[in-house]
Design a protein that fits this description.
heterodimer, A: mainly alpha, 3 helices, B: mainly alpha, Tetracycline Repressor, domain 2, 2 domains, 76% helix
Chain lengths: 54, 313
């Protein structure tokens, strides 16, 4: 017997959960992309290191 | 009812991701995206491509949120009309409460994100658009006045103005005229359709001009709005978003559109029924190309400006 019991609900809501997961992931990418574009004018490396425009 | 049958029913009516997407009225969103994109690119201020992309995305999301709130409020009408019976709420896949919560949440997210990504003038315009479509149009005027098409058209006319505000941070004569172009175009477009399409708004008790004021009055309304539309479309050509190519296309299209509207006005029902509403159908088809071509030409002129191409100078 597996530790995680797969309920019917998990199957029914698979598309919803997958879709929501992808939307949230896209949202994170957008917010990061906006930060890169607005704070460091496109320099991803500087955005990751937290260096901003002077 | 046994447990098995209850379970089977809930499986069939369980909302899927696509049902929530359908609440956003994706077909309307394509028009929002296109016109907002034109407004953004026609503006004299360049925007970082990623900021522009994000702004368009959240303008579209705001438009979708107002669509979800419209479907929540209009669920009773949608259940009556054949065209809308398969929408997620009347079909029983999404509850009205879920749609309302979804619409309110997306409205807040889209306005806040547009404010953070672009500026608060654009965000304010988006918030006003959502408020206007949901409260002024859907809740108040749609079921009350046959001018509902005119009011609803105003909500659909805001996206190029918001796109312009994303770039410039303000409102100007160009963005107001782009708004006016869609605003004046909507009534003749829909009323032409209403003349030859038997719709079931009557059953849903939504007042339509063809029923409340009669079909001859609708024909007259189409003509009058088209005259004002033509003046607006030519007026756009004299602003900074217009140009020689825009004007050439606008003159041809407006002459054709005025001719079509005039023909509709001069016809009566007997003439229309004799040729199965050929003139009205042709006018409606032309109206689709009409709006698309005007905005494409604004885009073309913006391209010339952006890449420094001098035309006939």
């Amino acid at each position: 017997m597996s530790l995680i019991k797969e309920h019917d609900l998990h199957k029914r809501r698979w598309s919803r959960n997958l879709g929501l997961g992808l939307v949230l992931a896209a949202f994170v990418v957008i917010v990061f992309g906006l930060t890169v574009a607005k704070v460091t004018e496109g320099d991803v490396g500087r955005a990751i290191q937290g260096q901003i425009n002077q | 009812m046994s447990d098995t049958s209850t379970n089977k029913m809930s499986v069939e009516t369980e909302a899927q991701f696509g049902d929530f997407f359908a609440l956003l009225k994706p077909r309307v969103m394509t028009l929002v995206v296109f016109t907002a994109f034109v407004g953004l690119l026609a503006a004299p201020v360049a925007v970082h491509p990623f900021v522009g992309f994000t702004a368009i995305l959240f303008i579209a999301l705001g438009g979708g949120a107002s669509g979800a709130l419209n479907m929540w409020y209009d669920a009773d009408i949608d259940a009556i009309m054949r065209r809308t019976q398969k929408r997620p709420i009347p079909a029983g896949r999404v509850t009205p409460e879920e749609a309302r919560a979804f619409g309110i949440a997306l409205s807040g997210i889209s306005v806040m994100m547009l404010g953070l990504a672009a500026n608060w003038v654009a965000a304010g315009l988006l918030a006003f658009t959502i408020f206007f479509y949901v409260v002024i149009y859907t809740m108040w005027l749609k079921r009350w006045t046959p001018q509902n098409i005119v009011i609803g058209g105003a909500a659909g006319a805001f996206p190029p103005m918001i796109g312009w505000a994303v770039a410039t941070g303000g409102v100007s004569i160009e963005s107001v005229l782009m708004f006016a172009l869609i605003f004046m175009w909507t009534p003749p477009h829909f009323w032409a359709l209403a003349l030859f399409m038997r719709n079931d708004y009557d059953d849903a008790k939504v007042p339509m001009l063809t029923v409340t004021h009669g079909r001859p009055s609708t024909r007259r309304h189409i003509w009058v709005y088209t005259v004002f539309l033509a003046a607006t479309a030519i007026g756009v050509g004299f602003t900074s978003v217009g140009g020689v190519f825009y004007m050439a296309v606008a003159v041809v299209l407006n002459v054709l559109f005025l001719k079509g509207a005039y023909d509709i006005w001069r016809r009566d029902e007997a003439m229309s029924e004799a040729d199965n509403f050929a003139v009205e159908r042709k006018f409606f088809r032309l109206s689709l190309y009409y709006l698309f071509a005007h905005f494409v030409m604004i885009l073309v002129e913006a391209g010339f400006d952006r890449f420094g191409i001098e035309v006939l100078s």
